[in-house]
Each structure stands twice: as C-alpha cells, then as structure tokens.
Amino acid sequence: MANKPNVILIMADDMGFSDIGCYGSEIDTPNIDRLAAAGVRFSQFYNTARCSPSRASLLTGLHPHQTGIGILTKDDRPHGYQGSLNDRCMTVAEILSSAGYATSLVGKWHLASNIRQVNDAWPTRRGFDHFYGTLAGSCSYYQPATLTRGETNVESEATDQPNYYYTDAIAQEACGFVREQAAMDKPFFMYVAYTAPHWPLQAREEDIAKFRGRYDEGWDVLRERRMQRLRETGLLADAVQECDRDPAEPAWEDAQDKAWEARRMEVYAAQVHRMDQGIGDILSTLEETGQLENTLLFFLSDNGACAEVLPLDGSAEAFKKRRPDLDRLKPRNGAELQVGNEPAIIPGPEETYASYGRAWANLSNTPFRLYKRWTHEGGIATPLIVHWPTGGLDNGAIVRAPFQLTDMLPTILEAAQVPLPTHSRQDIPPCEGSSLLTALRGGQASEHTLFWEHTGNAAVRRGRWKLVREYPSPWELYDMNTDRSEKNDLASSQPDMVNELVAQWDAWANRVGVVPWENVLSSYRDAGKNEEEAAG
To answer: Which of 78, 89, 182, 524 is the 20 to 30 Å CA partner of 418?
Structure first.
C-alpha cells in the first residue's frame, strides 16, 4: 500500500468556467494557479449542469439518473426520481475503502432526500469513514444548516464560535485529516466539497476589501479581458471568435446602481479567493507531512455560474417558507436577516442573503452562454485541473479532448491500481466513463460520446459535434471546433447529423432511466405546483 497515491477531489460550488486566474479571471487564486502550472488543465471537461447530479456522477462513475438523483434531492416517486443515492451504485469511497484506503468527506454532501434522520444515503453509509460538513445544499457561511460530524448534528459548533466561517472550517478540517493520515501506513481518499462561491453572498470584510474597485469598470470590459487571457493561454485555441454579453442584460454603461452591482461581484470574488486560501492551506499541510508528491489532486466545479435571483419565489417571505433553515438564522449582531437582491441590501455580512445576478454570472461563464441548469456550454463547462507530481503527467499541458464526470471514477481507480468491483449489493451498472490517465500523460485519448439531461435540457457531444436543447425548444447543432460559444446553429443545414445524434440521445436516455421532464411537470401541475417547484 505504500506506493498507492493519496487522492483528493476538490469541488467548488456554482463557480463559472473563467472564475480562477489560470482560466482567465481577474480573481486572485494563486494556489489553484500553482496546481495548474505544475499539473494539467482541461479545456473541454464537463459536469452535469446542477449540484446534486454532478456530485452523484462524480462519486459513482454513472450518469446521475442511474443513481436516483436526476434533478435534486426531493423524493418525486412514483412520477420522478427518488432524490437519494440508490442501492444500484457504489461510490468511489466505498470502493477505495474496501481496498484499504482511509476515506473522508469534508464539506457539502447534498445526495440524500432525508437530511434529518440517518439513512443509507448519508456519507457515513456510503464509504466515508470521516465526515464533517453539511447534508443540505446551500446555507449560511456563518451558521451552516445541517452541519454534521459523523452522524451527529453539530450546528452549535458554528453558532458558538464568534469567528466561524464555513469555507475556513472546511479547509481546517481537511488539514486535520491530512495530518492524522500522515501517521498511518495507508493511503487516503478525501473529497473536499466547498460551498463557495454558491449564494448567499457572504464573505469576510478583509477579503472583500482586496477586490474593492476591481469591478468598477463593469461586466463588459471585464468579460473582454477574460476572453483575451483565455486566448493568450491557448485554452480555447480558435474555438471562440466572439465574446458577447447576454442580450437579456444591459450594457454596463446603462446599468443602474453601479456601486451596488460592483459590490456584489466583489463579495463573490472574495468567496472564491477565500476558497483558494483554504486550498493553499491543504497544499501546505501535504508538503509539511511529505505527502504532496504522491497525491493525485483534482479541482473542478459542479456546474456553471448561477444566474438565480434571490428570493427565488418572488418574495422574501415565500422564499423563507420554502427554506426553513432561514428561520433559525440569528445574526450575531442582532440584526434581522435581509433576503433579496436589491440595492438596499449590501451583501457580504452575516445578516444578508443575496446572489450576484445574471450579468455577473455571464462574466463568470466567459465566453459561454447560459448558466447552471442548462446543457449549453455555460451550464456544463468546468475548469478541471489535475496535479500529481509522481504520476508521470504531462505537466503544463492542456488536454483538449472532451470528457465528463463519469470519467473521474475510472481515472482514480486506475491511478490507485484498484479494480472496479464485479459484484456488489445489487445489480450495479458498469461504469459509464473511461480513464483520463492516458490523456493526462500526453497520450491520445479514445473518443467517446458524452450525454446530458437536466429538467428537459439535453445534449449529446460526439467529436466536434454537439447537439443541445433548451426545453421545450428544438434541438440545436454546433461545431465545437469553431463555435464553442454556440452562436451558429447548424441544425437546419445538417439534418442527417441531427437525426443521428437524436437517435443516440434517445437510446441513451432510455438506457440510463431518464424520466421525461414532461412527466415530472405533469405530476407537479396535478398537485397545484409550478415548474420552479418541480425543478427544485
């Protein structure tokens, strides 16, 4: 076991394609950039467009629909998905644990519909020996709901500490696990699942101060600068010719409340920067304990940037009713919790609960269009950085071949020299992906077709061609070699290709158990509920 690599998966939450320095951002991320400089970057790696499905696919090597999590973590049976990891999948933690690895999850889980009672979809029942984090999705950074250690609720750990900040706590816990394992004679697998930079916009004032004034020029200028950096690094080669603003958003010169708008992005940047500082602490701990050289480390995001406007339901009171965790939040300064995206609410402090809006999400996704929940590039394209000093990687290289989350588990198992189990609790489908190691080491990766579906939005990618649909609109066809910004729809001029890819997508959807979005919507309408409630 001495030569087996440690494995660390680090996942950001709701972070756009170009939100880190080595992918073109003006946000300071020196530690992530350091990993990229000494590792390998991917220019065409994909998640599944939404939080829970991405996490399910990342950990199991299956498409999310196969795991029971096709949308989020609501139990929509009998007309939809069960919203929890089912018994027909195995997590990478379960597999590595049985192979002698110590296993840890630090941070966000969001793969169980029941987050109040211990059940088989909790991390401690899915292969993780050690767990410190949150079972729910988004939450306050100062008082995270469902904060759990092992199987015990420890929300009081946050409320009892005057300087508690969840992003820092995740890094501290991860460093503690690394130090513990340094004394053990076996490798470890650690999944570090940050909630940063997911809303709410909450950050330490000293971090926000680092970005004061940086966004005063507005989203148009900054988007062009990010695009220029992406061109200079060669990440996108010649696949993007233009970088247009979302037509639904105003030009910066026409924007109202510019100081407030700039503040929103300053807080978002501070959240990304604080996550980067925590990653730096983890790297330092690996170095201090002599484990960095033989640690295979991945960094990526669970979906594209988020354009959601708070409150999601149109009113703060309605939003609070759907989010009972907000009722328990009592800001330490005694102020009332302020929910919403309006200039009167200056985001950052503990008593605010806001998001940064569509225009800034458009910047985060430079140069792509659309956002989290869509299967256009803005929803599914993520940075992926892989770092493994003793792994024989083609360090400094950019891998341009397309891959997706189903490829992560086979990569980890090949690196760890652990075979995929041939028997398990029930009938588990074979892994849907293939290992990235050949590509990481400079070899020619074998081409395979990629598939997506989320709330009716769908896509298939085969070689240079991508067929994509925004529900309920018709299919669109794009040439990814020249048009990754998806501006020139070729569907009408390439009908044979469209028909061929539609047939492939239909066969895949049937095989992996995609529940037609129309069926889910119908069940919600029958219950007097709307599409937003169906989508979670």
So the answer is: 182
Say if CB 343 and CB 260 are below 8 A apart. yes
Q: Hey, where are the domains in the chain? A: 6-249+262-308+355-445
> What's the CA gap between 466 and 463, in Å, rounded?
8
Taking a C-beta distance cutoff of 8 angstroms, is the pair 364, 18 a contact?
yes
Percent helix, percent strand, percent coil in the chain, to nearest 5: 35, 15, 50
pLDDT digits (tens, 9 = 90+) for 308-317: 998 866 676 7
pLDDT of res. 427: 78
Alpha helices in 74-198 (DSSP H): 92-98, 155-159, 166-182
pLDDT at 323: 75
Would the pTM count as exceeding 0.90? yes
- What does the alpha-carbon distance between residue 86 and residue 99 come to, in Å, rounded to a whole number? 22
Q: Are 467 and 502 in contact (CB under 8 A)?
A: yes
CB-CB contact of 199 with 443 (8 Å): no
What would the DSSP string read from start to end of 306-346? ----SSTTSSHHHHHHH-GGGGG---TT-PPPEESSSTTS-
Nearest alpha carbon to residue 92 among 429, 440, 419: 419
Q: For residue 456, what are its two tokens?
A: 């009716």
* Banded model confidence at residue 424, pLDDT cuts 50, 70, 90: low
Neighbours of 390 (CB within 10 A): 12
CB 294 within 8 A of CB 381: no
Q: What angle do CA 71, 193, 93 make, to 5 degrees?
A: 85
H or E element in which residue 523 lies: helix 517-526
CA proximity to 448, closest of 436, 459, 433: 433
Do the beta carbons of residue 508 and residue 429 sit within 8 Å?
no
Alpha helices (H) in 88-215, listed in sequence order:
92-98, 155-159, 166-182, 205-209
Strands 130-134 and 147-149: antiparallel
What distances in angstroms separate CA 235 from CA 3, 178, 326, one per listed residue? 33, 32, 41
Is the pLDDT score of 421 beyond 80? no
Residues near 98 by beta carbon (within 8 Å), at least 6 away in sequence: 421
Kindly report the CATH class assigned to 6-249+262-308+355-445: alpha beta
